[in-house]
Amino acid sequence: RSVYDGEEHGRFMEKLEARIRNHDREIEKMCNFHYQGFVDSITELLKVRGEAQKLKNQVTDTNRKLQNEGKELILAMEELKQCRLQQRNISATVDKLTLCLPVLEMYSKLREQMKSKRHYPALKTLEHLEHTFLPQVSHYRFCKVMVDNIPRLREEIKELSMSDLKDFLESIRKHSDKIGETAMKQAQQQRNLDNIVSQQPRISGGKKSKKEFSASSELEVKNTSPMSEQDSGILDVEDEDEEEEVPGAQDLVDFSPVYRCLHIYSVLGARETFESYYRKQRRKQARLVLQPPSNMHETLDGYRKYFNQIVGFFVVEDHILHTTQGLVNRAYIDELWEMALSKTIAALRTHSSYCSDPSLVLDLKNLIVLFADTLQGYGFPVNQLFDMLLEIQEQYSETLLKKWAGVFRSILDSDNYSPIPVSNEDVYKKIVGQFPFQDAELEKQPFPKKFPFSEFVPKVYSQIKEFIYACLKFSEDLHLSSTEVDDMIRKSTNLLLTRTLSNCLQNVIKRKNVGLTELVQIIINTTHLEKSCKFLEEFITNITNVLPETVHTTKLYGTTTFKDARHAAEEEIYTNLNQKIDQFLQLADYDWMALEPGSRASDYLVDLIGFLRSTFAVFTHLPGEVDVHSTMSGKVAQTACMSACKHLSTSLLQLLLEAEVRQLTLGALHQFNLDVEECEQFARSGPVPGFQGDTLQLAFIDLRQV
């Protein structure tokens, strides 16, 4: 910087040049000092170069030879390298395939199981595949596809198993009738067996309870574990001969679809969903089963099919209850049974009320008893059914009363109301066998002879006994005590006597154109029927084994019934006589202004007195026993005669005192006196025996005084 800043460039350059020359001289001196060594070195180097060239040529030649010799080795090594690489790849592939093949095999097995509808094994295979095999090969794409498909497959298995369950439920619904029919046949067999055993006490050691019989007679339900390979739904059962043993009701059903579906849903963690669905569907089916057809009351088969379906439904539910854990429970069954019981009883009340045929009502009762016994054998309470049967008994009694009303009407309408003629001993014994009648006097009489009563007496008595038998039939198998049966029969018989028979007798007595002879015969007939009531009491006692002295025993009201009918007939006699008298009196034509009386009593009065004489003669000559004569010809005839005389006296007095008769002559009064004398003469003549003194003439005393 000082050189540039000053003006000393030239001087500096001179100094520098001088410095360079000094260095060059030193270098030259040094070179001169070492030059010989340098030359020697160059000479040695030239020698080395020649040797190096030779060595190079040798190395080059050796290399060429080595290269030529190593080409084959290199090729072999390359081949070995490729083989080792392939071997390693093959080994790795085998290892991976060893892991993948079981996965593919399991997946193939899964599809095969689903195709053959082996849903529960398929679900187990799916779980094994998901948790054991797929995690080992999860990085492969096909495995990822499988993993993605697993939820869909599980849902598909779920849906398919549910479809099988639906098919099972549908089949059960269709076959409930057959299942119930078989169960009721089985119960009938048990009841027949019980009857045989009860009739043969000596073999009572072999008797089983109903529940034991049900358990022993049922063939074992085949093993329907969840691993079962086949679904079969309802088995077809061919019709069997009557002599062959009826198969157990549950042997007709394969329950494996229910068990498999239950296990599948349990494994899938959806057991509650399955239980809810099953119960909901069965409730719906129960409502359908409990809905009776509108024409059920028309035939017994309608009721039988209705009962078969209900029994079939509860047989299935009872089996499900005892073979699954929790699918249905006792509370659920009891709830369904309560609903079924109420609906069944309501349906029976409604439809049985339409039934007017007592034989159909009786058959229905037997069917209801079998229905109740069948379900009782499966542990269901049926007391309400037997209570309802007592209601049907009242209806049965009403239908019997209607039927017997027709029977009685037919008997009374066809009767000739004449004493029964007997021509020989056989006919006599036949009638005495039909009706409890004993009369020593009649037995002593020679044939031909006559019973005092007409044909309707033995016929009515026989029909009353037939009615009692019909009532007894209904009481069978109702688990009633002898006292209850006796009471039921007596009450129904009382209704028959006091209402049905009484109305029929009253209708006969009150009908138009009934003759006095017929009325008198009715009085005789009812007297004999009244006496037969004690034999009806004995008849009921014999068939029920309940003594009439027992407390609360109902008494028969037949005596009252026949007394009322007899009194009605007597009143009808009195009324008819008075009406006849009125008819004659309508012919009376008095000329109250006549100057001279006639020579004799008025024609109408003569005819009237003649009619009364002939009428009371009929009373006097009635056939029959002595006591019948005394009661009929005596009391009834006397009362009728006195009533007729009083009515005649009153009617004549009214003719004389009526307001239209404002004046009368002595001649008219003498004519009227002749008529009164004719009446008094009739009273004095004793048209009916038994009057004391002038008792009958007192009927005309007021008229005579006026």
TrEMBL record:
GO BP terms in the entry: Golgi to plasma membrane transport; intracellular protein transport; vesicle tethering involved in exocytosis
GO cellular component terms given for this protein: exocyst; plasma membrane
Start and end residues of each stretch annotated as Disordered: 188-233
Family, per entry: Belongs to the SEC15 family.
Ranges annotated as biased composition (Polar residues): 188-202, 222-231
Domain Exocyst complex component EXOC6/Sec15 N-terminal positions: 15-184
Domain Exocyst complex subunit EXOC6/Sec15 C-terminal: residue ranges: 384-706
Stretches assigned to coiled coil: 13-83
Lineage, uppermost ranks: Eukaryota, Metazoa, Chordata, Craniata, Vertebrata
Keywords: Coiled coil, Exocytosis, Transport
Protein name as catalogued: EXC6B protein
InterPro entries: EXOC6/Sec15, EXOC6/Sec15_C, EXOC6/Sec15_C_dom1, EXOC6_Sec15_N, EXOC6PINT-1/Sec15/Tip20_C_dom2
GN (gene name): Exoc6b
